Amino acid sequence: MKRHVMLLAVLGILGFGGAGCGPGEEPRETPSGETTEQVPGEETSSEENNVEQFARNCKTTCSGITASGGTCGVVGFGSTTFLGGCKKACRFARQDADAKAASYGCQLTQCSDACG
Length: 116
Hints:
rod-shaped, signal, alpha+beta
């Protein structure tokens, strides 16, 4: 009986000691020439798609009069890249239209915005 107890004790110790042997769950080391990182051009993260969903474009179409009394039309464009919204994009479009009108010698009288 003593032999069986000693044998079970030795096997138990070896069993617990051997539990740590074998393939582990640690990450494998990559050779120095290989990398697992993506090249910046290959990145297609969902984060970029989310940013694009918040981007807005606006087109402002304005009409006005020139100093000689003629009519003129000006189109301005504006956009936001992140969380700007339509209001901000259209504000940029209006600034673009104002700058173009000034260079054409046009006094704007009416503008309409189209945001997308």
